[in-house]
Design brief:
Elements (H helix, E strand, L loop, with lengths): L8 E6 L3 E11 L2 E6 L4 E4 L5 E2 L20 H13 L4 E4 L2 E5 L11 H7 L11 H15 L3 E6 L6 H15 L10 H16 E2 L7 E2 L2 E8 L5 E9 L17 H7 L3 H5 L24 H15 L3 H18 L3 E3 L6 E3 L2 H14 L3 H9 E5 L4 E5 L2 H31 L7 E7 L11 H32 L12 H8 L5 H10 L5 H11 L6 E3 L7 E5 L2 E5 L4 H5 L3 E2 H8 L4 H6 L5 H4 L3 E2 L3 H17 L2 E8 L12 H10 L2 H10 L3 E4 H8 L13 H11 L5 E3 L3 E4 L3 H159 L2 H27 L4 H46 L4 H103 L24 H9 L1 H23 L4 E2 L2 E2 H12 L10 H15 L2 H22 E3 H12 L4 H10 L14 E3 L1 H36 L27 H19 L4 H25 L6 H26 L2 H4 L1 H11 L8 H8 L5 H10 L12 H13 L21 H7 L21 H7 L1
Parallel strand pairs: 7-23, 8-17, 8-23, 29-30
Antiparallel strand pairs: 1-2, 1-5, 2-3, 3-4, 6-7, 9-10, 11-12, 11-17, 13-14, 15-16, 18-19, 19-20, 21-22, 24-26, 25-26, 27-28
Helix pairs in contact: 3-4, 4-5, 5-6, 5-8, 5-12, 6-8, 9-10, 9-12, 13-14, 13-21, 13-23, 15-16, 24-25, 26-28, 26-29, 28-29, 29-35, 29-36, 29-37, 31-33, 32-34, 33-34, 33-37, 34-37, 35-36, 37-38, 37-39, 38-40, 39-40, 39-42, 40-42, 44-45
């Protein structure tokens, strides 16, 4: 290869890994010496080396055509890069390659993801199966042409799952209309598990391999809705029913039936190992699959498809009969070459099979063991030997199963229903991929034949797409050729000597064998370049297919191609008593019944089906999906290069690459080409040429010839990009060498300068060191002298201080001793004086106390005498009867008093406070009485003291009389006893007083606690009052709504009868205005008895009332249709309408149509008027009117309900009810405004008005989203600016781009300014403006963030800077708009701000996962961070994304969290709910008075509005 040079990055072929990355290090002769990435050294021929893009992106490219080098190893490497990041879909032009992840990725297939791809242009978002399905659907709608989607791949590649996803998406975008009750889409989807159960089986490579081809044709009507469907199947593998190899399995339905429980017991079935057709393989169970559950799913699918219960029973009876049929064994019979049932076990299975088929067992045995031959002489019965009987048994089993499968497909088609009027449809082809095994038989031959046909169609489509690309770019493409496979198709199907023709011819002759077939085949195609004879076999042949050579074993070709219909089998089962079985085998024509065998070629029939399929595909626009199986172990994140390369060859992907290589495989936009190769010709990069001219100048400078310049792209032949890269590498090498030379000069000069500076610095340091040493020596000498001086001084001072301190210590000790001696002497003298004084005082006091005690004793003795006398008197009085009667009366009064108090206590529970106060008062009185007693005792003591003084005087006078003194001594002794008794009484009274004081303190504390508790009870009572008030309001509103509903229900039945009467006598149902009755009120029948006759007679009054109604309606219509404007920021229309409704007593009317008229009028205005003006205007008016109704209306059922509840309550509950009656004054009516009693029409009007406000808000929000969506789609990606050599942006990591946002962001700012001006001009309350702005910014956040995650070209560094600058402009707008109107809008942009911040952060590889999650992107989920990290590429500085360790950590977290469906979606959902309630509106909008609104001159001409004019005057 001429472009290969030393240092080139190349791909070298490897036996194990197919291709490995390497670098050319040298050339040895004609060979190149390369070193692989693992360090292995290899010699290779340069022609076999493929160039490798050293600057390939970490995550690969989403379209193979974007590869710099479109070759086999480049395709393989790109798929591996994307697969390692769970990016399983990749485009190759319009072809989708799907790699089976072998793990669940539910975030890729949810409804929200379908919504993202719905209507998106193909290629704009990341590759996805939904994109292909949407492209097919849009092409069908736009071009009115049928489409087809061809899904191919080997077993286990995920074809069936891909087909399911396509059908799910088509169901999503083309679901039936709302009025259609059909369930076509559901039946089509449910047909998948049903056909899988009967047509899928385990193979060596796949647990759920489809053993038949399926073409699902989904039909659509003119509106793009699914109107019908049809399913066609191809080449069911019938031989699998009777013959399987280990470790494969038979069809799933047999194992499901064996695990069905009761049904299995009913059909005498057991474990699969008991049946010959199932136990040929030891694999009975599949990992992670429960056969019993699958059986129930199959039954449910049958129900949905429309198979009746009887038909289901018949189907499973037939399956059970096939299993029993397989267990019938034969042994030689009595006659020669005859056979019979082997044993009792076989007879049991024979009997069971006959019972299940509902046919005669003897006739069944006869059809298996004999065969009838029709001759001229008559019918000859021929016995069959054991081998022939077994073959007959297996033929019957295969025929029954094939007929059953065909019946299922036909039943599904009938149940789903085909739309004969449908002109367009989308066909989904799920067919087997190219197969090449160790042993390839007839099935592989047919499968590969079908794939050859499809490959030819595929090649033509790819070539057509290439031509379309060239034609669109207007380049010359007439000489492009590609290799066709028509010769292989001619070899197989050409008549009369094709392989199929020779095979049919051999099958027509009974004596033909596979040897004769092979011999004839080799004779006819001896020189054919595509056919070879196998080396080690005489009968095997090899065909060179497009995907490689395949050797076929012809041993069973003839047997499998012969599709004999045994007449006896058909006659037997057509006579079955089971209608289902008999329906599978209709009666044969007479001419067919003459022969025992009816030959039919399987290959010819398959060829005809394939031809019909190709005709269908040729009439449609094809779309291709190639499914790839990454490894043979069915494990995630395991990529086997050899296997995938083989599948890419088999799937035709590499063939498509070859077709591209035959033309112009490398195609780049002019911008990309100039950006990459502009440095080759810097002289043309001065900005004087456009990109196309610059591209041409670069190519002309290199003298390249094999290129074409299109409108937007440059097309290069194979190898030209290598020359360009080689020249680019040379320029970069030269530049690198120049930079290295300059760098070496700089380093040498820097080293010299640093060395010279170091020498000078070293010399200066040495001189300074010597000078510092000399200076330090002189300094030390001087310091030592100074130290000696101060040491001597210090020693002398210490000696002086020591002597002085000793002297002072001696003096102080002597002085202290003398002072302490004097102090002790004085202390002893003072103590002696004090003792003497205390002794004298004690002696005098004892004398006084002795005399005092004698006097008290005398007094006590005297009082004792008086008390005894009084006691005797009282005892006498107590014996009298009158005293007892008085006591009885007193006790009765006390009992009545207590009874009254008890009753009073029951009635006055709430009056506990008064009882406490009374108790406290009693305690105070008791305390006062005790205090009085204490004062009396103290006074008696004082009197006794005075008497004692008198007695002392007497004792002094009578000391001379001895006898008197003795008497006094005795009296003193008595007084002493009495005094002791009084002291004890006094102590008792003091203790009692103390106890009473403690009780009083406790009573005060209890009173304080009681007061606190009463306050808490009052608070809780007020809270309960508020709660009860709110509950009463809600209950009343609910009762009113129920009442409204009941009235509606009653009025609906009477509407037809009452409407003519009401229209005829509308004036009779209203009272005169003088009686102040509402104009629109319809009183009850009892109120209408008197005025009814009067109204009928008074036709004039009826006419006036009708005219008044019409005038009011016209006035309201004018208020609604005309723009009345605003006064002092108050909506005039809302105020006028409210005042009129109050004036006309419409709110108090029990039945009126005026509210419906207002709502209908508003809705009509919203439909007709300009949305940008009408919607904000009516949002302001409707919200104002709703606020007036909320503040000034009161439900009439509220007071009734409250009264009813309060009637049966008392005490606390009664007071709560009374508080509720006056609770309206706390809602803002302190000014005395009276509430209007609202009937149920008014309450219904308030609800309708609330719905109207929400509708207007939703319309404004949805219109804003529609208007801003196109702007956002252009803002997510930075516009491509032509690079100019003299004006390149700074590429330093610290450089900040000083560019203003583009026109797209300016248009968004203008859009937001226009929105704000419209809202504020119509005086929309700031509450609504804040909600609208917040939701608009939330939509901006969702749209930008989802687009960023779905479009890889947006996840770049420069694009992050572009979006970040736009977000900065939005931030400025939010700041200028103020928080009153913007609210939390900046917070709504949290996701896109953090995502963009991650894009523009430098050194991402140094960031750990915790730093990213906690610091950079705390709001983003791990899946979203993983998506951004894997899609990111730096188009400005060429830096890498996060490290591989961080990617591995995130992948591990995602694998663990894969089952959590709520966290698996990386896209954000748009919230379509209304972000406020009626209470929020009521609390947010300020109250205003509508009375000061003047009537506009436009409305002053209406007589019904004159009261407004008078009120204003």
């Amino acid at each position: 290869m001429s472009a290969v040079r030393k240092g080139s990055k190349v791909w070298v072929e490897d036996r194990d890994q197919a291709w490995v990355a390497a670098e050319v290090v040298d050339f040895v002769g004609k060979h190149a010496h390369v070193v692989t990435a693992s360090g292995k050294k290899v010699l290779a021929i340069p022609a076999k080396l493929f160039p490798r893009d050293a600057e390939a992106e970490f995550g690969g490219v989403d379209d193979m055509t974007k590869l710099t080098y479109l070759n086999e190893p480049g395709v393989l490497d790109n798929l591996e890069r994307r697969y390692s990041l769970n990016e399983i879909y990749t485009y190759t032009g319009s072809i989708l390659i799907a790699v089976n992840p072998f793990t669940k990725l539910p975030h890729l297939y949810n409804v929200h993801m379908m919504g993202q791809y719905n209507g998106a242009p193909f290629g704009e978002l990341s590759p996805h199966v939904f994109a292909v399905a949407d492209a097919a659907y849009r092409a069908m709608i736009n071009e009115a042409r049928s489409q087809s989607i061809l899904v191919s791949g080997e077993s286990g590649a995920g074809k069936t799952e891909t087909t399911k996803l396509i059908m799910q998406y088509l169901t999503f975008v083309g679901g039936r209309s709302a009025g259609d009750d059909g369930t076509v889409e559901q039946q089509v989807l449910e047909s998948n598990p049903l056909l899988e159960a009967f047509g899928n089986a385990r193979t060596v490579r796949n647990d759920n391999s489809s053993r038949f081809g399926k073409f699902v044709e989904i039909q659509f009507d003119a509106n793009g809705r699914i109107s019908g469907a049809a399913i066609r199947t191809y080449l069911l593998e019938r031989s699998r029913v009777v013959q399987i190899t280990d470790p494969e399995r038979n069809y799933h339905c047999f194992y499901q039936l064996c695990a069905s429980g009761r049904d299995a017991e009913k059909y005498k079935l057991g474990h699969p190992s008991q049946f010959h057709y199932l136990n040929q393989s030891k694999t009975y169970e599949l990992c992670g699959v429960n056969s019993a559950e699958e059986y129930m799913k199959t039954r449910r699918a049958m129900d949905i498809v429309g198979i009746t219960h009887e038909e289901q029973e018949a189907i499973f009876r037939t399956l059970a009969a096939i299993l029993h049929l397989g267990n019938i064994e034969f042994s030689p019979g009595k006659e020669h070459d005859s056979s019979a049932v082997k044993d009792q076990k076989s007879e049991f299975h024979m009997q069971m099979a006959a019972n299940l088929f509902m046919c005669d067992v003897n006739l069944l045995l006869a059809t298996l063991c004999t065969r009838s031959i029709q001759t001229r002489e008559g019918i000859i019965i021929k016995a069959l030997d054991c081998n022939a009987a077994v073959a007959s048994r297996d033929a019957l089993a295969k025929t029954v199963y094939a007929r059953l499968f065909d019946w299922l497909v036909e039943k599904i088609n009938r149940s789903v229903g085909q739309d004969k009027d449908s002109r367009v449809q989308i066909g989904v082809l799920d067919i087997y991929g190219f197969e090449c095994f160790r042993n390839n038989s007839f099935e592989q031959f047919c499968i590969n034949f079908a794939n050859e046909k499809l490959q030819q169609h595929f090649n033509e489509h790819v070539f057509k797409m290439e031509q379309e690309e060239y034609r669109k770019e207007e380049i010359n493409w007439s000489y492009i050729e590609f290799i066709d496979n028509q010769d292989v198709l001619d070899l197989i199907e050409k008549k009369p000597i094709g392989i199929i023709g020779l095979l049919d011819e051999a099958c027509m002759f009974p004596k033909s064998t596979h040897q004769t077939f092979s011999t004839k085949l080799f004779q006819n195609f001896r020189s054919h370049q595509r056919l070879e004879k196998a080396k080690f076999s005489e009968t095997d042949f090899t065909i060179s297919h497009y995907a490689g050579k395949v050797t076929y074993q012809t041993d069973s070709f003839l047997d499998k191609n012969r599709d004999y219909v045994v007449v006896e089998h058909c006659i037997l089962l057509s006579s079955s008593k089971c209608p289902f079985v008999a329906g599978l085998f209709p009666s044969l024509p007479l001419e067919s019944s003459r022969s025992s065998y009816k030959f039919s070629s399987v290959a010819s029939r398959f060829k005809q089906q394939l031809q019909a399929l190709m005709e269908t595909l040729n009439s449609t626009e094809p779309h291709y999906i190639r499914c790839v199986k990454p490894n043979s172990l069915n494990q995630p994140q395991k990529f086997e290069n050899q296997s995938i390369l083989h599948q890419l060859r088999c799937g035709g992907v590499l063939e498509a690459v070859r077709i591209s290589l035959a033309g112009y495989p490398t195609r780049k936009t002019f911008h990309e080409f100039v950006d990459r190769f502009g440095l080759i010709a810097l002289e043309v990069m001065d900005g004087s040429y456009d990109e196309k001219t610059t591209t041409e100048k670069i190519l002309q400078k290199l003298k390249l010839q094999n290129y074409q310049l299109g409108k937007t792209k440059v097309f290069l032949r194979a190898g030209q990009i290598g020359i360009l890269d080689s020249r680019r590498a040379e320029v970069l090498d030269t530049a690198a060498k120049c930079i290295q030379g300059r760098l070496r000069t700089f380093v040498a000069h820097r080293d010299f300068v640093s060395t010279r500076a170091a020498a000078i610095s070293l010399q200066a340091s040495c001189r300074g060191y010597i000078a510092r040493n000399m200076y330090s020596a002189l300094q030390e000498a001087r310091a030592s002298i100074l130290i000696q001086k101060y040491v001597r001084r210090w020693l002398a001072m210490v000696a002086l201080l020591h002597l002085r301190s000793a002297t002072v210590l001696v003096q102080s000790s002597i002085r202290g001793f003398l002072t302490r001696h004097r102090f002790l002497h004085r202390k002893e003298h003072r103590a002696a004086t004090l003792i003497q004084a205390q002794w004298r005082m004690r002696k005098a006091r004892s004398t006084f106390c002795h005399r005092q005690s004698n006097i008290v004793a005398i007094q006590c003795h005297w009082r004792q005498k008086l008390a005894k006398r009084e006691l005797r008197r009282l005892k006498q009085e107590a014996n009298e009867a009158g005293a007892l009667r008085l006591a009885k009366n007193k006790l009765e009064k006390q009992l009545e008093d207590l009874t009254w108090r008890l009753q009073l206590e029951k009635k006055l529970r709430v009056s506990s406070e008064e009882a406490k106060l009374l108790e406290i008062t009693k305690l105070h009185k008791a305390l006062e009485s005790m205090s009085l007693e204490l004062d009396a005792a103290k006074l008696a003591t004082v009197n006794e003291c005075n008497k004692n003084a008198v007695l002392e005087n007497r004792l002094d006078l009578s000391t001379k009389e001895k006898s008197a003194l003795e008497r006094e001594i005795i009296a003193i002794a008595e007084l002493r006893n009495e005094n002791a008794f009084l002291k004890s009484s006094l102590n008792a009274l003091e203790k009692k007083n103390f106890v009473l004081e403690q009780d009083l303190i406790k009573a005060k504390e209890d009173t304080t606690d009681t007061i606190k508790k009463l306050k808490e009870v009052e608070n809780s009572c007020s809270q309960l009052q508020q709660n009860l008030r709110s509950l009463e309001e809600k209950l009343c509103s609910l009762e009113d709504e129920n009442h409204v509903l009941r009235q509606k229900t009653l009025s609906a039945s009477l509407k037809s009868n009452t409407k003519p009467i009401l229209e005829k006598h509308s004036g009779a149902f209203s009272l005169p205005y003088a009686d102040r009755k509402p104009v629109f009120e319809t009183p009850t029948p009892t109120k209408l008895i008197a005025p009814f006759s009067q109204g009928l007679s008074d036709s004039r009054r009826t006419k006036l009332t009708t005219e008044k109604h019409q005038e009011n309606y016209e006035f309201l219509s004018c208020c609604i249709k005309e723009d009345l404007g605003f006064k002092d920021a108050k909506p005039v229309a809302a105020c006028v309408i409210y005042k009129c409704l109050v004036r006309w007593h419409a709110f108090e009317s029990e039945r009126t149509a005026i509210f419906d008229y207002i709502i209908e009028g508003i809705n009509d205005v919203l439909k007709v008027g300009d949305e940008n003006v009408t919607l904000p205007y009516w949002l302001s008016n409707a919200s104002a009117l709703l606020c007036l109704l909320q503040r000034n209306l009161r439900s009439s059922g509220f007071s009734i309900t409250t009264a009813q509840r309060s009637a049966g309550s008392s005490g606390f509950n009664g007071r709560v009810a009374q508080a509720l009656k006056s609770s309206f004054k706390y809602i803002g009516y302190e000014d005395g405004t009276s509430l209007v009693e609202a009937k149920y029409p008014a309450i219904l009007f308030k609800q309708q008005l609330t719905a109207c406000v929400e509708k207007i808000f939703g319309l404004i929000r949805d219109n804003l989203k529609k208007e801003i969506s196109p702007l956002l789609s252009s803002c997510i990606q930075a516009p491509k600016i032509q690079r100019v050599h003299g004006a390149k942006s700074s590429r330093s990591p610290g450089g900040v781009p000083h560019q203003s946002p583009s026109n797209q962001w300016d248009s968004i700012i203008k859009f937001l300014d226009s929105l704000m001006s419209h809202l504020r001009e119509n005086h929309v309350p700031s509450f609504f403006i804040r909600k609208i702005t917040t939701q608009v910014f939330s939509f901006i956040n969702i749209s930008l963030f989802n687009s960023l995650l779905l479009r890889r070209e947006c996840c770049t560094f420069s694009n992050g800077e572009y979006v970040k600058s736009g977000l900065a402009e939005l931030e400025k707008w939010i700041v200028n708009a103020m928080e009153e109107f913007a609210g939390t809008s900046w917070h709504e942009l949290n996701y896109i701000r953090q995502a963009v911040g991650f894009l523009v952060i430098h050194q991402k590889r140094k960031k750990s996962l915790e730093e990213i999650r906690q610091d950079l992107c705390p709001a983003l989920t791990v899946r979203q961070i993983y998506r951004i990290s894997t899609m990111y590429w730096d188009d400005k500085y060429g830096t890498q994304s996060v490290s591989n360790e961080v990617v591995a950590q995130m992948r591990e977290i995602l694998n663990k969290d894969s089952q959590n469906l709520t966290s698996n979606s990386f896209l954000l959902d748009d919230d379509l709910s209304i972000p406020f309630s009626t209470e929020d509106i009521y609390m947010a909008l300020p109250a205003f008075d509508p009375s000061d609104i003047e009537l506009p001159s436009l409305l002053s001409k209406y007589p019904c509005a004159q009261f407004l004019v008078q009120h204003t005057k």
